[in-house]
Amino acid sequence: MVTVAIVRRAQMEPNPQREKSKTKTFARSFGADLFGVLLLGAFLFLFFNFDLFKGDNAWVQLPDSWVNVNTIFLSIVIEALPFILLGVFVSALIQVYVKEDTIQRYLPQNAYAALFPAAVLGAIFPICECAIIPVVRRLIKKGMPLHVGVVFLVAAPILNPVVFASTFYAFRTEPTVLWSRMGLAFILAIIIGAILYLLFKNSHQLRESIRSKESSHTHHHTHEQSGQPGQKLTIFQRVKQVMYHTTDEFFDMGKYLIIGAFIAGVVQTFLDRQLLLAIGSNEWSSTAVMMAFAYVLSLCSEADAFVAASFGGMFTVGSLVAFLVYGPMLDLKNTIMLFAYFKVRFVIAFMVTVTVVVFSAIMVLQFFIL
Amino acid sequence: MSGHHHGENDHHTDHHHDHHDEHDHQVSSFHAFLRGIILFGFTLLFLSLFINGTISYYIAPKMMPFMYFAFGVLLILSVLQIIRSTSKNEEQDCGCEGHDHIPNKAWKTVLIYSIFIFPLVAGFVIPDRALDSSVADRRGVQLTGDVTTNQLINAEQLSLEEALARSEGKTAEDYLAEIDARGTGGEDEINHLTYDELYEMAGGFDEFYMGILDDAYQGDVITVTDDNFLDMMTVFDLYLDDLIGEEVEIMGFVYREKSMRVNQLVVARFSMTCCTADSQVFGMLVEGEETRQFDRDQWVQVRGVLESTTYVYKEESGDDEEPYEIEFILPVLNIKEIYEVDAPDTPYVYPNFNF
């Protein structure tokens, strides 16, 4: 009898809840769909009514300076889009198709000897700056030595064919920038790896508590594909995965590009030229400012060349190279992720090392080579 | 009996599980849908820029293949995202761990998607405009003679006025006398230097620029066009001494700095390497009484005679060092003719990479 009662209860109880949640679900999904459709409608309206805004009697009248901001802003965004898309696509491809074990196999055992090939590896596997930290973490868990992981972490976002291409196009008239960027990235990655090896040897620096995000709510993310990327999925599914991953990373990265481009536009339109020039022509201040800028902007390495190029007339070449080398190695976004994945002491050592090494190298570059 | 209990518990947790799943699914589905729409918005923006030709306000022609590529990819991705949002199953993950692609709070969602919608709205709504003098103010103008107006501003000792005043003493007779002295035939007219003479001047290694210069001659006048604009700036920089007295024709927008005299202006063009953001301003200083009537950003055509002038910057450093002087050599055109023209369809000039 008791059992029956309990059964009855159990059957009755969830029902009203179920009903309520069903309507809520429906209402939510309807609202969401409606919003989406309205947004689409808005875009189509704007598309077909081009003249309303662009002709002489434009609806929207802005002061000229803001129109200039907009011009610079949009040109950076539009210009960078193909490279970001390409970059996240290639990165997604690698993450879906390449087993990390493969990467492991090509490294020599000796700690110092592994530094050089690790940097080369960074060039061979063009993983986007956004994705590199989780990838390196997986690699280290699988046995990659810590310092090698560091070299890879620092080099891969820069020594990347898509980054090469975007830097090439952005600095067509100043090829020094491209070669400095690539050369420095390679050399400095090795130096940074060596320094961190001296400090930490191959100690265990990963944090274990990353489980927080992978709990029940987003459980489908624990679907680790790292171990067996090919075995359970069909080609079709893998292609889909690559495409979805591309889009997701695009939305992760895109917001930084948009913010950064906008800031660049504002700075260039409104900041006093004398001030900018004064800062920009001095080797010390220009480098420091550009590095700080790179840190804060957290731009994707595929796109940062265009933002840097927009400062071409005002800042020294060396400082622009600093922007392009420091940004992919260390920025606000990375820092947050680093603290999430690695131990605090290590992260701080990493940050200090990278900053000092890059700054010194750029000063050497500016005073002796350029 | 215990079997029943077990059954209920499972059933109960399953409900919660399903509820969570459904909610998750709905949330990620909504995000996919929204992203698809935003991507489609970008696709439309690109399409609109292509169709209306306004893409040239933002991107150099050389980069167009990349733009078409981006357009194609955006279209494909947007369609895929919309399909993804309609799929019923859980197979939507990207297989990545550690970072949740979907923002977990409502205000974050609003903020993030607003960031993406912003450039779309800006792109559709805000008028396109070619860059103008106000930007040149920011960036400085690269004058031929490898000097920028930035440098001139920084060199405070002598104002541009004072320096250029030195060149005022010369008259037309002086020019001709100079040319005679150089022995280019001793005629009364200004000669077109032959290709061989030009070639000799350069010592043979700058065939490229000699070729450009040679092509630029139309009759006796060196004509600066959209195509050769940037190269000609370099030519004037490299071979100024040899070209003094030549007649030059150039077109551009009017730019003035405060430090310039009333009878001076710069005839300038914006160059674009890949996109507007990296534009530099290039121009030539021209001088003549007629300049007074022209305002900034008016487009003018100028024909004048090339000559050089020096701008001296005296540095007096406090310590033990000797004060030193830097001489900037500036080409300047003495105006024969100047008149207003319509703004060209292609306001920007592009470098030719024909090395």
Please tag this protein with its features.
heterodimer; A: 17 helices; B: 10 strands; 20% strand; elongated
Structure explained in plain terms:
The complex is a heterodimer of chains A (370) and B (355). Chain A is mostly helical and 370 residues long. Helix content of chain A is 74%, strand content 0%. In chain A, 48% of the residues are buried. Mean pLDDT of chain A is 79; it is low at 209-230. In chain B, helix 10 (229-243) links the parallel strand 4 and strand 5. Chain B is elongated and about 85 Å long.
* Mean pLDDT, all residues of chain A: 79
Count of β-strands of chain A: 0
Average pLDDT of chain B: 74
Derived from helix and strand composition plus strand pairing, the structural class of chain A reads mainly alpha
The whole-angstrom Rg of chain B is 31 Å
> What oligomeric state do these chains adopt?
heterodimer
What proportion of the residues of chain B form beta strands (DSSP E)? 15-25%
Strand order across the largest sheet of chain B? 5-6-7-9-8
Distance from first to last alpha carbon of chain A: 91 Å
End-to-end Cα distance of chain B, whole Å, is: 88 Å
Strand content of chain A: under 5%
Low-confidence stretches of chain A: 209-230
**Low-confidence regions of chain B:** 1-8, 94-100, 156-191
Q: Which two chains have the most extensive interface, and how many residues on each?
A: A-B, 107 and 99 residues
Number of helices of chain A: 17
Major sheet summary line of chain A: none
Compact description:
The complex is a heterodimer of chains A (370) and B (355). Chain A is mainly alpha-helical.
